[in-house]
Amino acid sequence: MRVVVDHSLCEGNGRCVEVASGIFELRDDDRSYVLEEQPPQSLRAKVDLAVSLCPRQAIKIIED
Length: 64
Description:
two-stranded antiparallel sheet
């Protein structure tokens, strides 16, 4: 899987960082960024939770 954030949608609410801080970070421009674009399957539940909690649906999982 590959994780991406659509910055045209992201409002920097930081919900993704709350549940998966090792995968996402909130930067000074108030946007979330992916730290680990291809996280291991062991973190899949956290990524899925981040996707579901994003109020703007800015996070996508692309299956490789």
